[in-house]
Input
Amino acid sequence: MTNNQALDHAHISAKKFLDELHDRPVGPRESMRDIVNRLNQPLPTDGDASSRVVDWIVEALEPGLVASAGPRYFGFVIGGGLPSAIAADWLTSVWDQNVALEAMSPALAAVEIVASRWVREALQLDTVWTVGFTTGATMAQAVGLAAGRHRLLARKGWDVEEYGIQGAPPIRLICSAESHASLFNASRYLGLGTATWCPIDVDRQGRMRAAHLAQALSRSNEPTLVAGQAGNVNSGAFDPLTEIAEACSQNHAWLHVDAAFGGWCRASDDLAYLAEGIQSADSLTLDAHKWLNVPYDSGIALVQDADAHRHSMSVSASYLTAGHGGDGMDWVPEASRRGRGLVIYAALRELGRYGLAQLITRCCRLTRLFAETLSEEPGITILNDVVVNQAVVEFSAPSDRDPTEFRDEVLARIQSDGTCWAGPTYWRNTPAMRISVSNWRTDESDIEISGSAIRSAYRACRYGGN
Ligand SMILES: *Cc1c(COP(=O)(O)O)cnc(C)c1O
Output
């Protein structure tokens, strides 16, 4: 059928993109403005052939694409797509199933049940944990906080889903001073605010000081929600979760842990110790589109209190018929939704338990190698203990230069060179570069050539020349 030519065209372009991904310059060749100028026509009066639409999209957007799915993109925390996950994502679109209710698609409801099981098994979590497939970690944070809010207020006899947050008994909110910004974003959605969080101070690696948390908890017996993290977005450091969980349980506080990428360390025998204690949390945030290497968008919310999870998310209406535990809408804010669990199922099946452990361990080993290579260069310092896949890199500036401006100049040089891509951060007030190795494609040779590209960019900025 001619109608499907668009898919053939997309398939050819997709394969070309993936074939060239390893070797294309990592950064974009054109800016957003350039692309807008090319696309920015009035809405056409007449339509176009579907395959021509696809060809035009590829031609017009190609120069502005970033090889962030490739092996030498070290910005933010960004994975690529495992082949089966990309293919499963295509099928998810082609099948176009709605997973709000089991009745809408037994197939995708079934796959989400099994994907939930596999995620729990990968993280060595008990079967009592319920799972919701969200757009990303930010929404998973919102699910965890909503479940916590439900449980804490229900204990006070307040039905927050019915009566809302206004007039409710106060909830004390305690987090780490190094919490990820998404925690506050999620908190805002729930009417819990942002300035309302009491930050607990952290050590040099950015780990919450558990003793200080215990002190804060003992000061009041108000319902309390504590947010810890497994994997600091800069240093990769893990909060001491066992001690934190103990303090929370003694004080009947709800413990939510942001384990967006760090949670996957539970899959590796060598690294699981870092995330020890996670199993005692009440709710967890996990990303699949980062370290599990599935395409955007994909996050996972896990709650160890099915009743609180369901109460805070589910709705009922005359025409919504309850299934047999496969109604996706019971566990996430959305009703209609694509079957996000399928790509997660595919990725976990492609990797297996062993492959997943290897992926996680390999990224961490490569990050250590990266850090070693870079710190061999005089003037380059690694600011954190490299415990997982994150490194924070300082470029020492000439004494007459502003350190932030100098850092930005080095980064601009690295980025325009195109060998690899990394972005800025501040670590304990020092301007630095962040490195995150989260892609299944990255290997030793990528680290070697990226390491030398970064070192030459630094030398060129520091001592001149090119
Ligand atoms: C990326 C990240 C988030 C937010 O994740 P999104 O998927 O972008 O919403 C939250 N916490 C941590 C630690 C992260 O690294």
Remarks:
- Residues 77, 136-138, 180, 182, 231, 233, 258, 260-261, 287, 299 surround pyridoxal-5'-phosphate (CB under 6 Å).
- The longest strand covers residues 430-436.
